[in-house]
Design a protein that fits this description.
The complex is a heterodimer of chains A (185) and B (426). With 185 residues, chain A is of the alpha+beta class. Helix content of chain A is 58%, strand content 9%. In chain A, strands 1, 2, 3 and 4 form a four-stranded mixed β-sheet that branches. Chain B is of the alpha/beta class and 426 residues long. Helices cover 25% and strands 27% of the residues of chain B. Chain B has a 15-stranded parallel β-sheet. A four-stranded parallel β-sheet of chain B has the order 9-11-13-15. A two-stranded parallel ribbon of chain B has the order 5-7. In chain B, helix 11 packs parallel to helix 12. The chains are: A alpha+beta (185), B alpha/beta (426).
């Protein structure tokens, strides 16, 4: 689909008329992604604009398996954006039904991507999206985590995410008072 | 999703925790998260939204004032509250304090007033406090009573106003709207209105007005940027500035529509006309103004100016489609189908006549009278509709009081078999 793993050391500049950028994961693997897709990352956009990316962009904070997902997301969304830009009726607004359906499909795709991840992989993707500043991906992944918390008690939440209860006894008392109404029944 | 290692939620940056928690607004979820650990508790003041669902508190708790207590504490705790939605029962008397506390940051407010446990003064005075939220952008009120306009001052930033299921006096509507001159979205639904409703809004783009039609009500709407308008229940309708209108729906479920004056509608894509009885001049006026329409839905049972219910006058098929050349989808229920005929055009049919864009037709046939004329119409639609893909004929509710009904049904089935690729009967 999206991420094309290039040969090591060969930074392909143009593939089929599209400008590409080379990224290097924390574990030394090289990835290529279209410049259009890279623009979805505010961080990458600034690096590209600043020039000096001839030898590829190192991403010491992003592992290969995570970077692969990041590139999948960006290529998918860049392609969708290009499609709606080139659609003349979209500009006129008269095919608002089409654009609504298209964005619904994209949301479905995002959910599928996120639902297929282990908790481990999900948080790695969150950290990567945060670091690379990819708003849409950060929203989609954080929404998944938020959904996992809904309707749960504090104990259940701690268990799911392996979080330590670091309140002192006094703080616990204060929380009990402050939220008495929530734990009344 | 089982946990299998270090890191995860514990090693994400604070900003990420904030981002995740900001996606929760149900007050019980917020409370649970606040009690998980220090880092999460510290995020609470920066949350954007609080939602108190209808069943947030059971009856016993509500009676103890638990709802008011909780709302007060949470509004106090969330220092930068942007969005407050209260569906559970609460005391109106406490509202001013809550709004005042967050007046600087509040942008979205939604209240179920009919759930309020203290029935407030009928003159709308209890709503005055909403004016304190000077930066409010969206306001939705359910079950409020607006017999006099609330003293809101000027809500310059308000863009969206929705009032559902309230008693509205027209003068109150006018004054309330005068307080919100920059609305882009206005909805008054299920409101008990009478007299004349007069609305002038420069920036209005979307408008829905649905009134309970006990008495005859008139609407004068001046909105030059209007793109979508849906009205139900008005007897007289005047629209000024419809040149940007793309979607228009006019309905009246009981009583009569006397007059519709829209002016030319060059951008209109979707048009829906529904009602029991419309004055014919009103129907033809709208149809004339909507010459560019692509989707047309007509479900008007009768016309006539008085109590007597009349069928539609004849509508020449060729004239009709020539005046609406962009028509792509046509839904005909009620009197329109019976009126379509070719009396005029059969005399000298232009051989180049076409129905160029029509792709989908949905017809409801109620009566077997004038069967030959109706079949002619169906045949013409198929013959001249060069792009026609689907025609659905609904005859399930046809009045079966005549032998003619059986004959007619047979003819329609024959028609269907001859055009089986396109025609379907329901």
């Amino acid at each position: 689909m999206a991420a094309e793993k290039g040969e090591k050391g060969a930074a392909a500049k143009e593939v089929a008329g599209e400008r590409m950028v080379t990224l290097e994961s924390s574990d030394g693997e090289e990835f290529h992604m279209s410049e259009a897709a890279a623009q979805l990352s505010t961080l990458l956009r600034h690096v590209i604009e600043g020039g000096g990316i001839d030898n590829g962009i190192p991403l010491p904070k992003v592992a290969a398996r995570t970077l692969e997902k990041v590139i999948m997301y960006c290529e998918k969304h860049a392609k969708a954006a290009a499609k709606s830009d080139s659609d003349p009726s979209a500009a006129a607004g008269s095919s608002s039904d089409n654009t609504a359906a298209a964005s619904e499909d994209l949301e479905k795709w995002d959910r599928k991507l996120v639902n297929g991840l282990s908790q481990d992989a999900l948080f790695d993707l969150i950290v990567a999206a945060d670091y690379l500043v990819i708003d849409g991906l950060l929203d989609a992944t954080c929404r998944k985590v938020a959904d996992m918390m809904k309707g749960k008690t504090p104990d259940e939440i701690r268990k799911i995410f392996n979080i330590l209860n670091d309140f002192t006894k006094e703080e616990e008392e204060e929380m009990r008072r402050e939220y008495a109404w929530a734990f009344d029944d | 999703m089982e946990w299998d290692g270090d890191g995860g939620m514990n090693s994400v940056p604070d900003g990420v925790v904030q981002h995740v928690l900001s996606m929760l607004s149900n007050v019980r979820d917020v409370a649970a998260c606040a009690c998980v650990c220090r880092r999460w508790r510290d995020c609470v003041p920066y949350l954007p939204a609080l939602f108190f669902p209808r069943n947030a508190f059971d009856a016993a708790a509500a009676a103890r004032g638990a709802a008011d207590e909780a709302i007060g504490r949470m509004v106090a705790a969330v220092a930068r509250l942007r969005e407050l939605v209260i569906y559970c029962p609460f005391s109106m008397a406490r509202l001013p304090a809550w709004i005042a506390a967050r007046s600087a940051t509040l942008r979205v407010l939604e209240l179920r007033m009919d759930a309020a446990s203290d029935k407030a003064a009928p003159d709308g005075g209890h709503l005055d406090c909403i004016g304190l939220a000077a930066n409010l952008e969206e306001l939705r009120l359910w079950g409020v009573s607006l017999t006099a306009a609330p003293a809101w001052g000027r809500m310059e930033r308000l863009r969206v106003l929705e009032v559902v299921g309230a008693q509205l006096r027209d003068s109150a509507v006018k004054d309330a709207i005068a307080a919100c001159p920059n609305l882009t979205d206005l909805s008054l639904l299920g409101c008990d209105c009478s007299g004349a409703v007069n609305i002038e809004l420069e920036l209005l783009e979307r408008c829905r007005l649905d009134i309970l039609g006990g008495s005859n009500c008139s609407l004068l709407l001046a909105a030059p940027r209007l793109e979508s308008l849906e009205v139900q229940g008005f007897t007289w309708i005047t629209l000024r500035g419809g040149h940007s209108l793309r979607r228009l729906s006019i309905a009246k479920s009981t009583g009569r529509v006397h007059k519709v004056d829209t002016g030319n509608l060059p951008d209109l894509d979707h048009l829906s006309l529904r009602g029991v009885q419309w004055n014919w001049a009103a129907v033809s006026s709208v149809l004339q103004c909507a010459s560019e329409v692509k989707h047309l839905m007509m479900k008007i049972e009768f016309c006539g100016d008085m109590d007597a219910l009349q069928p539609f006058p004849e509508v020449d098929l060729v004239d009709f489609f020539n005046s609406h050349p962009k028509l792509r989808k046509f839904e005909i229920h009620g009197a329109m189908f019976a009126a379509l005929c070719q009396k005029n055009s059969l005399k000298n049919l232009d051989p180049r006549f076409l129905i160029p864009c029509l792709e989908e037709v949905l017809i409801t046939v109620r009566s077997p009278l004038n069967a030959e004329q109706k079949l002619n119409t169906l045949e013409s639609l198929v013959k001249y509709g060069v792009r026609l893909r689907t025609m659905v004929i609904r005859i399930s509710q046809m009045k079966n009081c005549h032998d003619a009904a059986d004959d007619f049904f047979e003819e329609i089935c024959k028609f269907k078999y001859m055009n089986y690729k396109k025609v379907r009967i329901e």
